Amino acid sequence: xxxxxxxxxxxxxxxxxxxxxxxxxxxxxxxxxxxxxxxxxxxxxxxxxxxxxxxxxxxxxxxxxxxxxxxxxxxxxxxxxxxxxxxxxxxxxxxxxxxxxxxxxxxxxxxxxxxxxxxxxxxxxxxxxxxxxxxxxxxxxxxxxxxxxxxxxxxxxxxxxxxxxxxxxxxxxxxxxxxxxxxxxxxxxxxxxxxxxxxxxxxxxxxxxxxxxxxxxxxxxxxxxxxxxxxxxxxxxxxxxxxxxxxxxxxxxxxxxxxxxxxxxxxxxxxxxxxxxxxxxxxxxxxxxxxxxxxxxxxxxxxxxxxxxxxxxxxxxxxxxxxxxxxxxxxxxxxxxxxxxxxxxxxxxxxxxxxxxxxxxxxxxxxxxxxxxxxxxxxxxxxxxxxxxxxxxxxxxxxxxxxxxxxxxxxxxxxxxxxxxxxxxxxxxxxxxxxxxxxxxx
Length: 442
Prior knowledge:
Layout: E1 3-8, H1 12-27, E2 31-32, E3 41-46, H2 51-66, E4 73-78, H3 79-91, E5 97-99, H4 107-116, E6 123-125, E7 142-145, E8 148-152, E9 154-155, H5 166-170, E10 174-175, H6 178-190, E11 195-199, H7 215-226, E12 232-235, H8 245-253, E13 260-262, H9 270-276, H10 282-295, E14 300-307, H11 314-327, E15 331-336, H12 354-377, E16 383-391, E17 398-401, E18 413-415, E19 424-432, E20 437-441
Parallel strand pairs: 1-2, 1-3, 3-4, 4-5, 5-6, 8-11, 11-12, 13-14, 14-15, 18-20
Antiparallel strand pairs: 7-8, 9-10, 16-17, 16-19, 17-18, 19-20
């Protein structure tokens, strides 16, 4: 029986696409393997969001090409190949096929064409596909990680953020049918999943292309009714300006929806935000965060910022620092501006020196570290449900997360006990670090 290996790079949205391709290959008679020497087909689902991720993707492809055996096929898929397919073929001569983000569902067709031969090398499969997000070959658009599962509710993005290449890679917004999302959520509930994490490039834009207003709030109302036995439902990637009063009300009144809001703001100075082509009404941000905290007093707030964006002055950066100190987010992700050719910000260039970007990044993270520590110290003595994700073999500590932490990007809880993996367990918090907590079973 032929075998396949998929190396998935980048974000959780990419991982969902990788798992969807795996489902299709299994359906066609392939078995998964983690050993490249055993694989008849090796697929690298690349990331191409910024320069560093492009470099990593090319490095992984070169590694697989170097150890490629006769009769084995190497397929480059995903974000990097969607934008830079010809560059990938030039940089990695061993690649047999190029598959982009918009036709991942054609993976079996591509493999069959390779096996049938002869074919051009590499075989390009990059058609424009207005059906992306709908023509899904009856696979589950989910990926499971222990007791959690990511569920993709939309693909693409219609926003025009100046620094972002996602619309060039993924195309415009395509929302998935609500019925399909609910059916997948029911399947996850049946499988015993404890946390469903809704993901898209912009979850708050869900349903816009289908004529829906406030589509995410309506979806959450339907979802909580459809899967009453899933204790945690988490929303990621909310867009500023689209966290509506209705959405806040739904989140606050449905106990399954964890009080956690991830709203990437990118900056706090209106002039910087206008250059980014992002929402620049900071009064709205202040009012909305006040509403969120009033409706959900225990809410955990997460955001991301970019430092060193073209034209960012020291005064503009200081405004960002002051904003972080004022709002006191629970979690902050910070990134140094990465110049992306082809994006609307290209004419601005990349004028801020790397050492200035680095210095500003360090100052921002130092300020946030103190804030995160204070938030964590406020949890000491509380009893919080922890979703156990694993165990440290050396220390014997159980490792998990509270509702305050999304997987992979936020903190952990280290529990002095051997707890069942994949289950929610009450834990008394006994200690706090800048990003992680320590506890014992309650």
